Amino acid sequence: MNSDALVQAVKDRFAHAVFACHSYRGDATALLGREFLLEVARTLKADPAFQMGFLTDLTAVDFSAYGTRRSPAFFNSSGVGLGPSAGVPDPDPWPGPPGEARFVVVYHFFSFPLKHRLRLEVPLDEADAEIDSLTSLWAGADWLEREVWDMFGIRFKGHPNLRRILMYEEFVGHPLRKDYPVNKRQPLIGPVN
Hints:
The chain is of the alpha/beta class. Helix content is 17%, strand content 28%.
């Protein structure tokens, strides 16, 4: 099933849960409300029409600084072009972050039997950055969710062991948040010599 057909199938099947879909350069993406994540993920894994048995990745994006400054470099089909750009040099650009949410949790699924992939994006507000864990469906979600918790501070309800995985336990803050100060000193690092 190509990405356009997959997007349409997801939109038809989960009309109550999906509030936007798009297919960009062969990648199918669906944006859904967090209250529907477990239902949609369970169906994507078990339903013969989808057969998404492999959770390839789970990550997050902090959009708090999106659009506040223009990047001096941009990517185009021939590589990287340097210099200011009037816009994205693409006639069919990616639609950008969904709404006003600060965070988006991003799930990448793949179907080995059907050879298609799907990206689910779930927007979260900063004040309530919590989402259901997928560890009950994919054991591999365990460490991926721990990494997102450690780096972004997004909590996963129902996770069996949500604790830091990359930083040490005394580390203060979440280093991939856009507002994390790059020169912050941490408890176990000590003063600058």
